[in-house]
Amino acid sequence: GPAGMGGVSEPGPQAPLAVLSKVELRVSCKHLLDRDTLNKSDPCVLLLMQTQGQWMEVDRSEVIKSNLNPVFAKIFTVDYYFEEVQKLRFEVYDSHGQAGVGTHDDDFLGGMECTVGQIVAQKRVTKPLFLKYGKFAGKSTITIISEEISGNNGYVELAFRAKKLDDKDLFSKSDPFLEIYRIDDDRSEQLVYRTEVVKNNLSPIWEPFKVSLNSLCSCEEKRKLRCVVWDYDSRGKHDFIGEFFTTFEEMQKAMGENKVQWDCMNPKYKIKKRNYKNSGVVVLLDLKIHRVYSFLDYIMGGCQIHFTVAIDFTASNGDPRNSCSLHYINPYQPNEYLKALVAVGEICQDYDSDKKFSALGFGARIPPKYEVSHDFAINFNPDNDECEGIQGVVESYQSCLPKIQLYGPTNVAPIISKVARVAADEERTKEASHPCPPLQYFILLILTDGVVTDMADTREAIVRASYLPMSIIIVGVGNADFTDMQILDGDDGVLRSPKGEPVLRDIVQFVPFREFKNVSGAATSSCL
């Protein structure tokens, strides 16, 4: 399905939305208004996108303390549909700690509107920031630099530490942080990543972090990188400790058991001090490269699709003996779950080479002990949960329903994690001998009536699964509130784990079956 950052105009049946590419946006500001009496403003940028006439927040940057000319480390990623007018709005706020950013008018430092197309065409856009009612925010400007990602070549995980850095503080030790800049062909520098600050430590170990290869080096191994170590100052006047230059090619020597280290140099000290050696050493402890494949890569790589169906057997569906139940056992016509299963399953069946479906249930008490299970085989054969085609799933469903007791809660994370474990095992098995995409791709089809109980665990499970050869289709059955499902779909912004980690790929597609049960299978499939 179309990844969901567009959605301004409704395409006709002959004009499906084609994602031209993904675009990375880097944001910086100059001459921001100073809202704080003692310190300078602590700016943060919110990115909003217009969806069906409404401004929806897509993502937000980090907060930079006490800085009126911030360069944000956060890289915003949006899908670019060239045939659409995709309106963006950037809003800059002075943040006050944990209070929600953007909640007080007096914290608003200015906004700017443009389209994705304008930024892509100009590559670099600088515009004034405006307050309410079209009033200029002093001399404040915002600069957006865009870069199209042509093909996703994966990401790299890096772990840095430093040793024996210069001490810049009088009464305590330095508070170091590291910045990595990519040097572009025009010699301009783009901030790739800024680490956290390690307080009062001349030999800090920074948290490992992930960056896309596109962002780090434009997928060119020999492109020069500048790495700078600073001593953090709460008033924004960070002290320069030293710098070094490297390339991604050189960094790759840190793979496996090896480490790479560089002298952290202060050019002024090098000139002034005769016996100057360095201002400390920076060590790359570990580097891991992760390739990222699109669904098309998997299909074109000749991989097999493996489908798993998961059916919601929680009590909110209603007693199957009652005609109002979504699981009503009706000898004359299929209930809502069977209709959804057949409609969506027949589309999925075309992609499955062996036409065998793993079929699982969740949220019911099951025999023999009638304990609640959130991932049981509906054929009651835990060693082989596969059914022959959609008809086999239908028969197992009809046979299983009278034997179980609908219960709860609606926990979806266990089934996502179960399929993810199989996908991870498959990837590990193939990775050593097969540099191409894994030979199996896993699709989990979840049929549910709505509200999810374990929302935080489910978000975490989806973020983890987004690193695997796996997609999730959620079909909403009945007329319940599907707000949770729309959040998991991520079409109005990037889905994040409870800790704030974004999904690597948009792997969830939500379909409310009530909107499609009276249309053709082809129309339903176009929404999946």
Automatic annotation (TrEMBL):
C2 domain ranges (all copies): 2-129, 136-263
UniProt-listed InterPro entries: C2_dom, C2_domain_sf, C2B_Copine, Copine, Copine_C, VWF_A, vWFA_dom_sf
One term under GO cellular component: plasma membrane
Example GO biological process: cellular response to calcium ion
Gene Ontology molecular function: calcium-dependent phospholipid binding; metal ion binding
Gene3D superfamilies per the UniProt record, alphabetical: C2 domain
UniProt keywords, alphabetically: Calcium, Cell membrane, Cytoplasm, Membrane, Metal-binding, Nucleus, Repeat
Location(s) in or outside the cell: Cell membrane; Cytoplasm; Nucleus
Pfam families reported for this sequence: C2, Copine
General function of this protein: Calcium-dependent phospholipid-binding protein that may play a role in calcium-mediated intracellular processes.
Family: Belongs to the copine family.
Protein name according to UniProt: Copine-7
Phylogenetic classification of the source organism: Eukaryota, Metazoa, Chordata, Craniata, Vertebrata
Gene: Cpne7
